[in-house]
Design a protein that fits this description.
Layout lengths: L2 H9 L13 E4 L11 E4 L1 H8 L12 H4 L5 H13 L4 H9 L4 H14 L17 E3 L3 E2 L6 E2 L4 E2 L3 E2 L5 E6 L2 E6 L3 E3 L1
Antiparallel strand pairs: 1-2, 3-6, 3-10, 4-5, 7-8, 8-9
Amino acid sequence: MSIESIVKQRAGEQCELCSSTDDLKVYEVPASPDSTAASCVLVCEKCRSEIEDAETLDQNHWRCLNDSMWSQEPAVQVMAYRMLKRLSSETWAQDLLDMLYLEEDKIEWAEKGLLADEDKPRDVNGVELKKGDDVTIIKDLPVKGSSMVIKQGTAVRGVNLTDDPKHIQGKVNGQTMFIIAEYCRKK
């Protein structure tokens, strides 16, 4: 029996995260300890696209994790944990994350996948920043070594990435400077 047929049978032909029955595909959970059906989940196209691209995240769609986080399948638990972590700025998601119990090996697996995402600069909402993006500063930022302050609401156009994923580079008032990514919001 193939991995796809095992996962489909286990899931009852519905998305293991949101219960949708439309456009289902097997998704191998990143940083899995092996390549078996136990490291895969059956997901709909909406869930898969939002897992892979944080910019398309529909926060209300992920309220389905309230049910799926209690699954007995380790891969489903890990994906629920990761998505709740990604949405942890939302009160409801943090509440669910606080209730979620995972064994140590499952937490380790879930965290490994989250660490792989940490090498990318992200804005205050967790959206990945890319070269050329436009951002808005969300709080007054003092510039080290000067008396200048970058004011909240300042637009920075066409940012560049740096070697450090916590920083981006952009021009503010005609001067190129490094800016902490988490103090920006992507436009």
